[in-house]
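This section describes the prediction task in plain terms. A model, or a person checking by hand, is given the sequence of a single protein chain and must write out its three-dimensional structure as a string of tokens. No templates, partner chains or ligands are provided. The sample shown here is typical of the held-out split.
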Amino acid sequence: MLDDHPMSSRQSHKEQHRLAIGGSLRAAALGANDGIVSVSSLLLGIAAASGDRTHILIGGIAALVGGAMSMAAGEYISVSAQRDLEQAELGIERRELAEDPVAEEAELARIYEARGVSKDLAAQVAGQLTATDPLGAHARDELGITEQLKARPLSAALASATSFTVGAILPLAATYLSPAGAVEPAILASSLLGLILLGYLAGKAGSQVTLRGIARVVLWGVIAMGVTWLAGHLVSGFTQTTG
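The expected answer:
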């Protein structure tokens, strides 16, 4: 009796890779981190200078809206520039294929040969790919541009703005719900909790959760909040002295 296990394993095996969503994942992680850190830092700075909860909330909401829009615009512009570069490179490659397809096929074969494929097989593969989709082959193997990893400005901008908003809501909610005399500790505690969770999720998405990775996220967040809180105290003390 033949064992069909190897065949069934190959048929059922599905590899799970995260590179296809790498750009959006990076934008989302950056946006959430910035939302937590920048808004909580601003809230702590205002709280240090003025204990008025209304002023703190107004400043926080303004920071949420302005920050989300800024993150979206910045991400869109950045990724659009990357997309423009990709299109320019593809244009050059398209022109070279039209002008000298033989040289381009030979270039493709050299790329495969440099990766360890035998010379004859590299030439054969290059010939077959050139016959079916020459631009796609050069985009993938010469330029490193694939459908999964190509620049997507709109999705990156949306992920960045949405994640910033989600991150910013955490310290804002803590400010609104905390008792009058515990606004600053509530902001700090909620932000630390959010940063720990973000560090964990970022590691989970990359299949490697480490205390070092979580600590890195928390450390820089604490530094930013501490500096802003200190600035608020110094400004408050200065204005009271000069006033």
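For orientation: The longest helix spans residues 53-99.
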